[in-house]
Design brief:
The protein is an alpha+beta fold. It has five helices and eight strands. The longest helix is centred in the C-terminal third of the chain and has 29 residues.
């Protein structure tokens, strides 16, 4: 994939959509491209976050440790962004992410991510929207699970 294709892909991510093309090019150029084979871990629940990942191709499962074992809470694919919660909040990773198939990612370091947020405050609004959406989704899943268990 060319640098221009990576820039176009970044433009499809809501939190990066409003960045100038030159900044998207810088982001694509300074990010590290990493390929994971099936069953290889991006990171594990509890690890400290040092980067976020944009999936270029392939799929990855988001897994959470529970008392009854690993629970698959989501499957991510092309253009999905994962890992930003740990770098934004300086907390351990809230889930494990494992490649479901051969998966190509752009790894965006914590430093680069924060530099972009500082330079482009509008990115913060998009990040808040995304996190609020995920929280709403998780709350609905929890409500449904509790309703089913009280059934």
């Amino acid at each position: 994939m060319s640098l221009n294709e990576e820039v176009e892909m970044l433009r499809n991510i809501p939190m990066f959509a409003k960045l100038e093309p030159s900044k998207l090019k810088l982001l694509a150029f300074t990010s590290e491209r990493i390929t994971y084979e099936a069953d290889q871990l991006f990171f594990s629940q509890g690890d400290m976050g040092d980067a976020a990942y944009l999936i270029i191709e392939g799929e990855a499962d988001v897994l959470v440790d529970t008392p009854s074992g690993e629970l698959n809470v989501a499957t991510l694919g092309r253009n999905d962004f994962v890992g930003e919660i740990a770098i934004l909040c300086d907390v351990p990773r809230t889930a494990t992410v494992r490649a479901k198939s051969r998966t190509v990612t752009l790894r965006i370091s914590k430093d680069l991510f924060f530099r972009l947020v500082a330079e482009f405050p509008e990115m913060s609004v998009e990040i808040m929207r995304e996190l609020a959406s995920r929280l709403d989704h998780t709350t609905n899943q929890l409500r449904d699970a509790l309703a089913a268990s009280n059934g």
